[in-house]
Amino acid sequence: MSLLSNAKWNSLSQFFKILVQAVNLIYLAKIIPPAQYGLLAMAVVVINLGILLRDLGTSAAIIQKKTLSRDLINSIFWLNVGLGVFLCVLIMLLAKPLATLYGYPELITILMLLGVTFPLSSCAATHLALLERNSQFKTISRIEITSTLVSVIVAVIMAHLGFGVFSLVAQAITLNLMSAVQFWMVSTWRPSVKKLIKLNDIKEIFSFSTYLSLFNLINYFSRNADSFIVGKFMSAAILGQYNLAYRIMLFPLQSLTFVATRSLYPILSKYQDENGKILTTYLNTIFVILALTAPLMSIIGFYSYPLVTIVFGDQWIKTAEILKWLAPTAIIQSVLSTTGAVFMAKGRTDLLMKLGIFGAFLQLSAFILGVNFDINTFAQFYLIANMINFVPVMYCMMKLIGSDISSLLLRVSPVIIAVIGMILFILFINHFYPGDRIKGFLPLAWVLFYNISFYFSCLLVMSKNTRLFIYSKLRINS
C-alpha cells in the first residue's frame, strides 16, 4: 500500500474517533454528572501512564525490523501478554491506596475494571503491529471503526440506564475487547505455547524498545508538566483558560500528526536503508502537513478573540490571548511530531531519547521561567523553547537521512510564501473589517472562507506539485 492509501484509511478511522469524542463531550456529558466525569479523569491519569509501559516499544520494533523470525514474534507476543497481566494486577493492588490518596472510595472499582483493558490490548498488540507492518490499514480502519461504534452504543445505553461513570468504563472495556477479538480473527499469525519468551530474541530488540519507552516516558512528563506548574503556582481559573487554549491547539494537530506518523512509519521502515526514498517521502509528508496546519493555526492565532468569544463565550477571553502564542507553537510541533517516525525507522531510538531529554529540559526551563510572570509570558516561553528545540532535532534527523535543513526549507517554501501572502491579505481585510467587529458565526465563517481561499490560490500559484496532484485527481474522477 502507498503512503496516500495508508493516510486515507487512517484519516477515516481518526475522523470516526473524533466523532465519538464529540458524542462523549456533548451527548454523554448531558446524562453523566460532572462529578462522575471527574472520577474517570482521576483514573485516566494512572491508566495513561500504564499505556506508555504496555508493550515497551516492542510493537514499533516489529514494524521496524527488516527480517522477522517466528520465534521473535512469538517472544514479543508473550512478553506483551506478561506485561499486560502485570499492569492489570499492579493497578488492582494500587487501586485502594490511590483511591485513599484522592479521597474517593468509588475509584477502587473504576481502577480495577479499567485494569482489565491492559491484558485485552496486550494480547492483540502483536497482531496489530504485524498488520501495520504490512500497511493493511484498510482492515485496521474497519476494525477500529466497528469497535468504536459498538463501544459508544454500549456507553449510551448504560448511561440511559443510570450507570453513570461505569458507562464510560464499559466503553473502554468493550473497545479493547472488540478490537482484540477482531485483530485475532483477521490475522493469520498465531502464537506458539511450546516456546514462550526466548531471551536471545528479546535481546535483539532490547536497546531499540528500551530507548523508545524512555523517550515516551520523558515526553509524557514534559508534556504534562505545564498543567501541573500552572495549577500549582498560578490558579485553577488560569489553568482552565490555559487548558482550553492548549486543547484548541492540540485538537487539529494531534489528529493530523497521528495520521501522518502512523501512515509514514511502516513505509519508512520498509525503505530504512534507502535514504533517498526516505527523504522524498518525508519531505512530501511535511509539505502536506504544513500546507494544512500553517494556514489553519495562523488564522486561529489572528482571529483568536472572535473565535473564542463566539464559540465559548466572553468568560474565556484569556484563552484567546494565550492562543495567540500557542498557535505558532502548534505549527512547529506539527513538524517535530513526525520526526520520531524517521528516527525509529532508522533504528536510532537512542538519538531520539537524547533529543527528547534536551527538549524536555528546554520545556521545563521555559515553564519554570514563565510561571514567574503571567500566563501570556508563560505561553511565549513555551513558543521560544519549541523554536530552539526545532533546530537540533531537524538537524540530526536530516543528517541521519543524508540531507540538511535547507532541503526541508526549499521543499516547503511554497507553503511559507503562501502563508505570508495570506497574512498580508488578513491584515488588508482587517484594516476595513477589524476582528473585534466580528460578532456572529456567519461573519466569522465568511472571513475564514475568504482567507483560506486566498491561501490556497497562492499555494496553487507557487507549487507546481500541488497543481499536478489536483489535476491528476480531477482527471481520474472525470
How would you describe this structure to a colleague?
The chain is an all-alpha fold and 478 residues long. The protein folds into 2 domains: 3-197, no CATH class; 208-477, no CATH class. The chain is built from 19 helices and no strands. It has helices at 3-31, 34-52, 58-64, 70-102, 107-115, 117-133, 137-160, 165-186, 199-233, 236-270, 275-302, 304-312, 317-336, 339-345, 349-370, 375-400, 405-432, 441-462, 464-477. It is globular. The relative contact order is 0.09. The model has no long low-confidence stretch (mean pLDDT 84).
List key phrases describing it.
478 residues, 2 domains, mainly alpha
Brief synopsis:
The protein is mostly helical. It has 19 helices and no strands. The chain has 2 domains: 3-197, no CATH class; 208-477, no CATH class.
Radius of gyration over all CA atoms, rounded? 23 Å
Number of helices: 19
Helix content: over 70%
Backbone structural class: mainly alpha
Shape: globular
Topology of helices and strands:
Blueprint: H1 3-31, H2 34-52, H3 58-64, H4 70-102, H5 107-115, H6 117-133, H7 137-160, H8 165-186, H9 199-233, H10 236-270, H11 275-302, H12 304-312, H13 317-336, H14 339-345, H15 349-370, H16 375-400, H17 405-432, H18 441-462, H19 464-477
